[in-house]
Amino acid sequence: MACRTVCRTLHRGFASSPAVVRPSSGGVHGQRSAVFSREQARQRALYPRTEKIEVVLHGPGLHGTLLIMNKGVSTPHSCARHLTEWHVKSSALALVDGEPWPLHKPLIQSCSLSLLSFKDKDPSLVNQAYWRSCAALLGQVLEDAFKDEYSVELLGIPELPVTSGAFCCDFVLDPQLDSWNPSEESMCSLIRGAQQLIHQDLPWESLEVTPSVALEVFSHSRCKQEEVEEKAAKSNNGTVVLYRCGDHVLLSGGPLVARTGLCSQYEVTAIHRLGEGAWGLHRRAQGLSLPFQLEAHHTVWRKLRSRATKLVTMPRESSSGAVPDLTLTQPPAPVHTHPPAPPQT
Amino acid sequence: MRLTLQMLISHGRVARKMGLGPESRLNMLRNILTGLVKHERIETTLGRADEVRFYAEKLIDYAKKGDTDTKAMKMANFWLTEKDLIPKLFKVLAPRFEAQPKGYTRMARIPNRENLDKAAMAVLEYKGNPFPPLQPAKRENELTLINQLLKGYREEQAQQAKTQKD
């Protein structure tokens, strides 16, 4: 009997304390940002002497323009600043020797550069990067939205094609919030948080690091560490790319656009439950956004938004024909007949 | 007649003067109209193209009556100086514009003539001619973000309409 009470108190004691002793979310972000800054400073210190590189620009009106830039310090953003204000404001992504390059990543050798914007002949790379960035922003807003005592785990950003109608971010909330459903006001506050970030116009800085540094950055989050290991296994040279926006450090499946100020219309449209998964109750937050050069009329926006509230699924999942029984709130999404997204170079 | 100031001021007068007089004007228009029927796209001065446009469209209206109609044949005979263009008018141009009630011609301005007179020039053509278009239709880029979202939206609507019909 004494054993039973002891067991009961012990069980109660274990049940009430969290599985992982987490510092407050502000402290976590601060720690991640500090590690990121340290690694950034270390990588910059690899080029103590200013060496020059030659960058050849390609683009409308720019064919063959030669710029002499600094190695390891100049970014495509600084190349754009040598041109005009329009180039600085409108370029979202850069193409260095044919591969997509974040705008704030330093150039390390002589190369050919072209600045991509939303209104090019073929903006598919930029569109995909923009979709990923908006989902990253959504993840950041979600991390900040809840009080410190509730933990938020971002599970990752599924790579969705733009034609699916919405970008999404999978996340898991604290088990105490399992019965929580978002209300109108909470959605509005999420939108307001996103609009504040957009208004601050924070740049997305990128950094290529070894998996050990990435694991150190995400030392408080087991699922993020698994994601790091997955990404390291998939990449060609075993490095992982981290992105930082303001205070938050995150992983991404591909390059992100230059800064948050590029988005103008941004709305968080829905939060769906995906059912129990490896880390708890998986949820999917969806949103819709358009850049400042391609703003939609309110009638068009309303139609696109109503489509974005429906649950979006990966094209592979829906084309298999099986009704996903994880959708508890909405009827299954219609089968997408368009071909899957073009592969990222 | 009395030489008044109003004779010299031409406010409100819409009739154009071309050439040496009214007969000369009609002859000039006849020549230009023959050239238009022959080549289906011609380049003249702005005023002449504008004048010919009315007659070109009226000629098509007459041609639509068919070549058995005496009035239509008389008109075609008068206006076309090269008589081997009369079958072309009745057999090629009239059937082409069967479905349209009006608007058989298109006029576009081009840069002024290089001569000393720097005359304003225009191109006049019958629609449906075999040449490449004067002003190619500007298509919006299908691949921009907003157009891709709208494309997905349209496909979904079509899908829903199809499932509702079934």
TrEMBL record, chain B:
<comment type="similarity">
    <text>Belongs to the bacterial ribosomal protein bL17 family.</text>
</comment>
<dbReference type="GO" id="GO:0005762">
    <property type="term" value="C:mitochondrial large ribosomal subunit"/>
</dbReference>
<dbReference type="GO" id="GO:0003735">
    <property type="term" value="F:structural constituent of ribosome"/>
</dbReference>
<dbReference type="GO" id="GO:0006412">
    <property type="term" value="P:translation"/>
</dbReference>
<protein>
    <recommendedName>
        <fullName>Large ribosomal subunit protein bL17m</fullName>
    </recommendedName>
</protein>
<keyword id="KW-0687">Ribonucleoprotein</keyword>
<keyword id="KW-0496">Mitochondrion</keyword>
<keyword id="KW-0809">Transit peptide</keyword>
<dbReference type="Pfam" id="PF01196">
    <property type="entry name" value="Ribosomal_L17"/>
</dbReference>
<dbReference type="InterPro" id="IPR000456">
    <property type="entry name" value="Ribosomal_bL17"/>
</dbReference>
<dbReference type="InterPro" id="IPR036373">
    <property type="entry name" value="Ribosomal_bL17_sf"/>
</dbReference>
<keyword id="KW-0689">Ribosomal protein</keyword>
